Every structure is written in structure tokens, then in C-alpha cells.
């Protein structure tokens, strides 16, 4: 009988304890929200003051209106763990009228969609001017083509295909060859700067330069070095021959018997003419023979 009589009292105490704990937790949550709201207001005031100092042309009313226009989520506005960022002033970026190297070589850039030009990257992003996929040059199927992970170009053209080193040396027997066979390019041609940078050339087949990205093949480097040595050797031989011919045209001859020096010169008629030079000897024995234009020290 005592247990049955005490049961309602115990239940009432439990209910009262639960209600008091719930009220205390609610009061604590209200205090936390008030503290967060107070800190937000302080941060907004500090941000407005800092923006006013950096932008003196904006008035206080415009700053408050700009801050109040920041969208907030009603479901998370009272949550103590979520903070809504403030609106920032946009940074003006001047567009650059050139292709983006990162986009052309990889097919994508951070925070950019295909074919878009935003304030993050001012260069042009054209999906039609992407570089060729390495799998196409190797003659194997691209693993990322089916899953759209590979965004590079899988269609062949002279604008994106590298130059064939074997064709430039005259020994390409691959049919068909995945590399470009340019008729105006040889092993001594310079590298195409645009192709080596982005893997794409606007001129294409009419370009007279080597299309290659990265390090030049060792075969081409060896051929260029050999050609350079041969050209230097030929130039040296020609210079020696010309110097030899010039020495034949004008050669000094000494005559000890007469004490004079004659210089033979070739006149226009094809005959040699002797030109004497006056020699002045000293009166004292042992002095050297001097010319008239000698200046003593």
C-alpha cells in the first residue's frame, strides 16, 4: 500500500526535475544566442569602420545598406555553429586576349566552367583549342574518354599534332603516323613558341617551325649540333682561304743589298709595281735604321 501511495509523488518529482532541467537548458541556449548576436554586431561595426577607412567615398548609410543586403538562411540564423560571411567588394580584372595555358593543356581550371572567362582567370578558355590527348599519339584508347574525365582533344589536326622527328630526318615509315608531317619544317627550324607553351598553333600546317612541347628529342639536338659544327668548320676554312688570298695580293719583300724595303702592289692592269720606302741611317756606328716617320720615346 505504501509503494502504491508513493508512486504518484515520485512521478511528480521526476516531472518537475525534467521541466527544471529543460528550462535551464533553454535559458543557457538563449544566453549563447545573445552572446553570438553581440559578437556579430561587434564584428559588423569593426568591419564597417575598416571599410569606411579604406573607402572614404562610401558613406555610413551605404555601408549599412550593403551589409543588410547580405542573404541569410532563416533555418541556420539562430544556430551558434553557422556563421554567414559578409559581402566583399569585387576586384576588377582586365581581360587578356590570349589563350590560357592551363586550360589548353589540361582541359579545366579551378572554379571555371568550359568556355567561360571570369574574374578569377582573365584569359580565354576555348574548348575547341585544347591540346591533343597523349593516348591519341600512342595509338591506344583513352581510359578517361568514356567517363568524361579526360577533357583533352581526341580528334587529329595539324594545329595540335606535334611534328614528326623521323619525317624531318627522312625516315618515317609509320602508316598512318599520328604525328604531323610538315613540308616546310626541317631539323634546323626553331621551335614554335605558341605550341611549346599551350600545345596549339593558330597557323597549323603553314607554320615553318617545329611543333613540340617539353624537351626536344635527342636526335634533333644531335643533328643540330652536328650541323652547327659543320657550318663553323666551313666558315673557318673560308676565312683561312680569304686571308691567304689577301696575303698574296700584298706581301712585303726585304732587300739587304740596297738597304731598302719594297712593297709589291697589284695594279689594275695586272702588273706588279715596286714602291720604294726611304730609309734613314744613323751617323754613329751601331744605330738602327729608322724610317722618316719614326717617333722616338
TrEMBL record:
User: What is the protein's species of origin?
Assistant: Knufia fluminis
- In which residue ranges is the amino acid composition biased (Basic residues)? 38-53
Q: Please give the superkingdom of this protein's source.
A: Eukaryota
Regions of biased composition (Acidic residues) lie at 59-68
What residue spans carry the Low complexity bias annotation?
69-80
UniProt feature, compositional bias: Basic and acidic residues: 23-37
Q: What is this protein called?
A: C3H1-type domain-containing protein
Annotated segments matching region Disordered: 20-82
